[in-house]
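Quick log. Single chain, no ligands specified.
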Amino acid sequence: MRAALRALLALWLLVAGATLARAETIVFTDVNVVPMDRERVIPRTTVIVADGVIASIGAKAKLPAGTQVVDGKGAWLVPGLADMHNHVTTRDDLTLLLANGVTTMLNMGEATNAFNGRTRIAVNKGEVPGPQIFTAFVVDGDPQYGHFVVRTADEGRAIVRLAKANGYSFMKVYTNLSAEAFAGLADEAKLQGIGVVGHNAKAVGLARQLAAGQAMVAHVEEFFYGFFPEPPADDPNAPPDDARIADAIALVKAHGAFVTSDLFNYRTIAAQFGKPEVVKAYLAAPEARYLSPGDRIGWARSGYQKKAVDLSRRVAFEARFVKAMADAGVPLITGGDAPSIPGQVPGFALHEEIDAMLAAGLTPWQALSAATRTPGEFIAKTVPGAVKFGVVAPGYRADLLLVADNPLEKPATLRTPLGVMTGERWYDAAALKAMLADVAARRVVP
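-> predicted structure:
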């Protein structure tokens, strides 16, 4: 079956006029490496990949005849990007991620059984194109959001064991989970070696959640609901006092937790409240041609546009908050909510997040770290036995992005990759272009 899939992929790319290389050894020559272990560049060197893992940088070796060689011609080799909060469940959306340089993703809830089982396993084995996939099983204490419901400590413990047995790497806690259920879930998660991530649970609060071992806060805005003081009744969307930012940073750092920067996500939501014309503009954007019919319908019917809410002050606060966290060394990771939130197309949305971080004042190093190195650190800390990624260094998974310019000087270069490697597969620019065209052709809007 695996050989047949490879043959079909190679044939498809050949017909599309592109090239696909899959070999035991691939060599990148004449590349400037941005390793992301620290802020530096290794100029004009050679990187050797063996069996999907980086074997060496700068070493000279006698290579077997027929070894695949990628001539970088002075281009820049960086770690592949990581989207650590999406709801991607289709192979077309996996293609969109990959074509945008995303080589790792975390589905943050409601993945279908087929995606979490067959698709995730096939992609992670290299049988199907896509970024390496991690999944989170989402639980709540109330069915109003459509999530799996648990209400007691015993049910919380049981659901952790069930999720682990089905290959999930994380438990995602949601808004209405009870304190009792959270306690049981968090305790069992420690025993089972499965990470806890997610929202503020109103009955618990972020301070207690992080103290109990929650490893990641899934949205920056969760601090509005679970840490900062409630706004006055006559101004419910007032932003917190900037003086409280230091307290939030201290809390996160005390527990070694990670925070998902979703500036673009929150800004996109805020822009469409009570404004159907904004959603129409999202649907008319060039990247929207890659949306599935179901997502187009979902965007058009989104409830955000039905009620006017002014979140502009909170959007501005979030930018200051994320900048302060980055400067204080809080481990930020990139994510959003694509494709479930109108305005967020898988893959393209991650580049918008990087741009939003830069607009908030983060340096290119800080923004690129949140999209590469820090997600690798997060997975290494929370998923036992996971292959290291996020840095270009020997022993790390060969998730690589080849771009024309130095992304530490011109981050926009990340949007137009010259090639992407994930594990053992290398896709050149022609292959990536053909993949996008294929998705667009299947998603033509009459």
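The domain at 80-268+312-386 is CATH 3.20.20.140 (TIM Barrel).
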